[in-house]
């Protein structure tokens, strides 16, 4: 499930100047559809009707393309049970999150019905999934857009869905990947788009989590780390004690301010929140292991919430 290489943005625009509409259009015309949201996601969800509640929570319109936005919910939403939100594919190129969410639904979700209320959105950004992109069609990062006003349409649609469950969600696990293409394509693209100089970084070799700096929950993060390291290696800090430029506050854990950055993991106000980061390009792991790591993360999060009694 590795992503194919994508083109460099370096030739778009004038170095040092932020992109305008013409540059964004030039970027969009270079994007190629590599895979099918309908084949990979919608056809996987359709057979779940009857077992679970399948919801269409909106439609993403991208030029002539229209994408129905689907969520899957536990078949009975029981008042008084803790609720858990699982999201994948906020960054469409991060394949393991999408397929991890789908595999959890297919193989594990039924065992949690009646024990916890769960809501799973396997692919938040369908256009980005098909084009293997971090950004949406407008060269906007959905995972910096979970705020009002001016949200990316993918983000706005998810916020509208989640708003109906306000006060009912105890946990949210947002499934992501960190890939080599972050360093070779997406961070250079971000620098070019914003008229900044690109500063090279490094990619952690292994799984890690991002906790909310405003609401740290170390026991929740530790439960996920413990489960995942049975499946795939946990990332070690670099020589500065950091992962991806942030201090490692616990084994395999860093902190971001979810709210100020407009991150998906900050939309619920839930007590327990985290962003997973698997590394499918690692020589120590396979993309299949990364999908399994995402499933293990979801299961660990649900088990933790159940053990805490909500």
UniProtKB/TrEMBL annotation:
The protein's superkingdom reads Bacteria
User: Which molecular-function annotations from GO does this UniProt entry contain?
Assistant: metallocarboxypeptidase activity; zinc ion binding
Cross-referenced InterPro entries: Peptidase_M14
SUPFAM superfamilies found in the cross-reference section = Zn-dependent exopeptidases (SSF53187)
| BP GO annotations | proteolysis
Please name the Gene3D superfamilies in this protein's record.
Answer: Zn peptidases
Task: Spell out the catalytic residues.
Answer: 277
Record-annotated Peptidase M14 domain positions = 33-305
**PROSITE patterns xrefs:** PEPTIDASE_M14
Family, per entry: Belongs to the peptidase M14 family.
Q: What is this protein called?
A: Peptidase
């Amino acid at each position: 499930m590795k992503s194919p290489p994508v083109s460099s943005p370096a030739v778009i625009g004038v170095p040092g100047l932020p992109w305008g509409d013409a540059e964004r259009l030039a970027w969009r015309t270079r994007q190629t559809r590599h895979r099918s949201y309908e084949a990979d996601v919608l056809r996987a969800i359709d057979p779940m009707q009857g077992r679970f509640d399948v919801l269409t929570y909106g439609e993403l319109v991208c030029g002539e393309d229209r994408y129905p936005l689907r969520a899957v919910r536990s078949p009975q939403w029981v008042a008084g049970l803790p609720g858990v939100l699982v999201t994948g594919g906020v960054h469409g190129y991060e394949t393991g999150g999408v397929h991890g969410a789908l595999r959890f639904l297919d193989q594990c979700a039924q065992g949690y019905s009646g024990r916890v209320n769960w809501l799973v959105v396997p692919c938040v950004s369908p256009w980005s999934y098909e084009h293997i992109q971090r950004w949406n069609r407008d060269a906007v990062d959905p995972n910096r857009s979970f705020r009002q006003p001016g949200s990316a349409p993918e983000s706005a649609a998810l916020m509208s869905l989640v708003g109906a469950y306000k006060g009912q969600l105890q946990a949210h696990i947002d499934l992501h990947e960190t890939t080599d293409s972050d360093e070779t394509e997406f961070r250079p693209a971000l620098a070019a788009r914003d008229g900044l100089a690109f500063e090279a970084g490094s990619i952690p070799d292994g799984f890690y989590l991002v906790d909310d700096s405003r609401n740290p929950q170390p026991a929740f993060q530790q439960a996920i780390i413990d489960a995942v390291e049975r499946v795939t290696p946990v990332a070690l800090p670099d020589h500065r004690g950091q992962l991806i430029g942030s201090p490692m506050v616990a084994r395999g854990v860093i902190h971001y301010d979810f709210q100020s950055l407009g991150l998906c993991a900050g939309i619920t106000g839930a007590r327990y929140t985290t962003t997973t980061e698997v590394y499918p390009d690692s020589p120590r792991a396979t993309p299949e292991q990364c999908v399994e790591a995402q499933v293990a993360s979801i299961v660990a999060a649900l088990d933790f919430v159940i053990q805490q009694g909500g």
